[in-house]
Amino acid sequence: MTLQTIHIDFPSDILLTINESEKDLKKRIKFSLAVQLYLEDKVTIGKAAQIAGMSHFAFETALSEQRIPISLLSAEDIRKDMEKLK
């Protein structure tokens, strides 16, 4: 897997303001982006985990801890799948 680096400018005192290390802030940003893209159905949960730099299981666990669904299937999607299986 190749990586793409993106630079984002923040106020110079951001780390002091939020009392976090640069490493922790990067981790938070990557996780937040991954969650947002997943919730917008732009990426799969597996790709979101990859963006966050986490294993699939760890990402699902983190979502569950924040009460974010690990499946975005609607009741209608499930009904359609059940009909196909009959």
Features:
86 residues, mainly alpha, 60% helix
Structure description:
By secondary structure, the chain is mainly alpha-helical. The chain has one domain. 60% of the residues lie in helices and 0% in strands. The chain has 5 helices and no strands. The longest helix is centred in the middle third of the chain and has 18 residues. The radius of gyration is 17 Å and the shape is elongated. It starts with 13 loop residues before the first helix and ends with a helix.
> Number of DSSP strands?
0
Query: Could you report the average pLDDT, rounded to the nearest whole number?
Result: 91
Q: What is the oligomeric state here?
A: single chain
Category from helices, strands and their pairing: mainly alpha
Q: Which consecutive residue ranges, at least 5 long each, have pLDDT under 50?
A: none
Largest sheet: none
Q: If you compute it from the alpha carbons, what radius of gyration comes out, rounded to the nearest whole angstrom? A: 17 Å
Cα end-to-end separation: 39 Å
Fraction of helical residues: 55-70%
Q: Overall 3D geometry? A: elongated
- Write down the secondary-structure element order: HHHHH
Number of helices: 5
Total domain modules: 1
What fraction of residues sit in β-strands? under 5%
